[in-house]
Amino acid sequence: MDWLSLVFKTMATIIYGTLLLRIAGRKSLAQMTIAQTVVMLAIGTVLIEPLVGTSLTNTFFIVGIAVATLIIIEFSEIRFPYMKKLFTGEPVILIKDGKINRENLKRVRMTIEQLEMELRQASIATVDEVRCATIEPNGQFGYVLKDDYQPISKREYYQIISRLDAIDATLRVHKPINQVKEGYSKEKSSNDVFEKVLH
Q1: Do residues 87 and 73 make contact, with C-beta atoms less than 8 angstroms apart?
Q2: Between β-strands 130-135 and 92-96, what pairing exists: parallel, antiparallel or unpaired?
Q3: Of 126, 9, 115, 127, which is closest to residue 60 (Cα–Cα)?
């Protein structure tokens, strides 16, 4: 194999592989489903073949079929829900209302320590704070906190600030209670003095 042919095959393989990955999707490795992971591994393996002697045309054809198969699987999952269960799977509930589901932990082959590690990485102090926690089909840890432990949103923050401003404006219109009391006590003491002078 001469150098010119090797350079051409390498460049053609990289360009073709890049275009196919754009078609296959933009998900990162952590977000891939099982089918996507299998196809990407196959593409990576097969694309090397023309660089070590296999026909470039045959390799591109095989990789094209692999990506087409992935696209068919993804469209079938949208059209038929049971296909999604077959190829992708469903989330597995690990925590429900602050209680750990040990059977589901065994099912996903996760220990209590690994679950606690996931909670710590999500800045969750205890299991009691969690309304629901799952392992998603792509292997990622998902969770929803109980209402008491939900972080305040920007919208809620501005609502609180606007209410405090309204209360502050109302208080500024009326005299503070301590000033009213002071005025009343001064008025009473002056009346006492006049009564003493008159008597």
Answers
A1: yes
A2: antiparallel
A3: 9
Given the structure tokens 């696209």, which residue do they identify? 71
Determine contact, residues 92/104, Cβ cutoff 8 Å. yes
Strands 99-100 and 130-135: unpaired
C-alpha count within 13 angstroms, C-beta hemisphere, residue 195: 6
**Taking CA 178 as the corner, what is the angle to CA 176 and CA 184, rounded to the nearest 5 degrees?**
110
Torsion of CA 144, 149, 151, 153, to 10 degrees: 90
pTM greater than the 0.70 cutoff: no
Condensed to tens digits (0 to 9), the pLDDT of residues 10-56 reads: 667 767 766 666 666 555 455 666 777 777 777 777 766 665 555 66
- The pair of structure tokens assigned to 162 is 């606007």
State the Cα–Cα distance between residues 175 and 190, nearest whole angstrom.
Answer: 21
Which residue type occupies 51? L
pLDDT reading at 86 higher than 50:
yes
